[in-house]
């Protein structure tokens, strides 16, 4: 037994000069045993190696210092299915640099870790920890990455959080944190990434958050933040992603908003109470790929300057009060034909009026989602729309569009979702309607019979034809639609011979 132990110690000691003298009753070992004791379930048996026949520096998930034998530098047991609490004794691993207990089932509170002065990484994400984030955690002055994502933590973000001067990454999102965003964050001058979204934070966004010089990602969405967005945020030229969606933010955006956001790629401000015009200067943020401003109260025209954004991939301005009521107002569409990376154009529920300009067909072939429902569009669908061969979804529902749809589908070979419901479309349903997954034609004036070719749409899962003037027999080929889960043929003049 003794021989084995010495052998194991020697094995562990290869390359670690002098470590064979490390006693196995040090504070670090006692701390680890304390940690093990608090584990109530170890489904993968990872802690079975944590026994005295092996030196603790060789226990699974434990790393020790080569320079200071017997001192634990890392405890990494991510994703091991462990349940239980995090023992207070972890707070005695004073040489530890990294503690990663993420993706387990730890519950209870975060222990007192203020003595871990060398700790650079603390990752407790994806657990069910509750209670508060202890203020004393801000004593871990060497912390570079703090990740508490997805727990049940409550209470305030520690007001002295700014004492973590070396922090580059902080993620407190998906918890139940309340109170305000501490202004002391401004002291963390190296900060690159800050995730606070999906909590219950309130108050306004501190002006001080505009003082970071290395920040690349700021995500504060899905909280209860209110007031105006501080103009200082728009000076953060290192910012690549700004996510403020689903808060109670109001006011207008500054006209020079885009002038300094030279690295911004993704802008999310949807589901707030923002008003006024969308600043034309947004086009000066020339790296922009995603602009998502849906569900606000923006008014005025959609700026034509957006056509300068050569990387623009998603423009989502749905559910605002944006207007296009004359040639001038529709010019944005011409401009967007220059955005050769555009994939999503979503303008549902605004105040777009009149005939859709023919230029719609000259949007790039990269376009996959064209969403214009809930406006007051009238006239016919421009035939040029058939050029948009990349379209997967076309939504023109809830407008006053008329004419037939015979020519519509021809070239739209990739179309899967077609929403034309609640318009004044007339004529028959064409026999070649593409290979759709969802077809919505209800509340129009379609006549004639349902083409039997509908049975060829093997992918069709939703078919809504209700409230039209269809007649004749229901084609038996409908029975071929094995994927069909929703079918509405109501309020027509069909003969009910359901196949
Ligand atoms: C460890 O064990 C040695 C020898 O048994 C003993 O002298 C020492 O006091 C112990 N240290 C601790 C911290 O228990
Ligand atoms: C100690 O851990 C080693 C390595 O996992 C294992 O082979 C051994 O059976 C364990 N001993 C005890 C007493 O559990
Ligand atoms: C931490 O270490 C000290 C000194 O070795 C000891 O007195 C204390 O009980 C330890 N705390 C825990 C929670 O293990
Ligand atoms: C923390 O752990 C999670 C899951 O194990 C991982 O996805 C995440 O990147 C880690 N955080 C940091 C800052 O390394
Ligand atoms: C987590 O622990 C709870 C009880 O503490 C248990 O009901 C649940 O099944 C555990 N989940 C996993 C994924 O181990
Ligand atoms: C945390 O740091 C402060 C200031 O350096 C000090 O006064 C306090 O005692 C420390 N707290 C703990 C628990 O170490
Ligand atoms: C968050 O806190 C609120 C009130 O403080 C509570 O009602 C709610 O259940 C909590 N949510 C979670 C997921 O713990
Ligand atoms: C938009 O403005 C109208 C009228 O000013 C107001 O009733 C509505 O609540 C606002 N909507 C949002 C999302 O702010
Ligand atoms: C047309 O749109 C412009 C720009 O938003 C607006 O100023 C004007 O009042 C609108 N005119 C009508 C008749 O709605
Ligand atoms: C598209 O870009 C070209 C070349 O930069 C420019 O000449 C043209 O005016 C732009 N078109 C629109 C509609 O903005
Ligand atoms: C429709 O698409 C499915 C799946 O891609 C394919 O199997 C089927 O042959 C297509 N049908 C027609 C009529 O193109
Ligand atoms: C389409 O459906 C019609 C009528 O059901 C049938 O005669 C024809 O063979 C089908 N075409 C294809 C390509 O499946």
From TrEMBL:
EC number(s) given by UniProt: 2.7.11.1
Main localization of the protein described in the UniProt heading: membrane
A cellular component term, taken from the record's GO annotations: membrane
Residue ranges constituting the Leucine-rich repeat-containing N-terminal plant-type domain according to the UniProt record: 27-65
Topology within the bilayer: Single-pass membrane protein
InterPro entries tied to this protein: Leu-rich_rpt, Leu-rich_rpt_typical-subtyp, LRR_dom_sf, LRR_N_plant-typ, RLP29
Reaction catalysed by this enzyme: L-threonyl-[protein] + ATP = O-phospho-L-threonyl-[protein] + ADP + H(+); L-seryl-[protein] + ATP = O-phospho-L-seryl-[protein] + ADP + H(+)
Residues spanning the signal sequence: 1-19
PANTHER family: LEUCINE-RICH REPEAT (LRR) FAMILY PROTEIN (PTHR48009), LEUCINE-RICH REPEAT-CONTAINING N-TERMINAL PLANT-TYPE DOMAIN-CONTAINING PROTEIN (PTHR48009:SF16)
Manganese found in the keyword field: no
Protein name: non-specific serine/threonine protein kinase
Enzyme class, broadest EC rank: transferase
Keywords, alphabetical: Kinase, Leucine-rich repeat, Membrane, Repeat, Serine/threonine-protein kinase, Signal, Transferase, Transmembrane, Transmembrane helix
Keyword Transmembrane in record: yes
Locations listed in the record: Membrane
Pfam family membership, one: LRR_8
Organism of origin: Oryza nivara
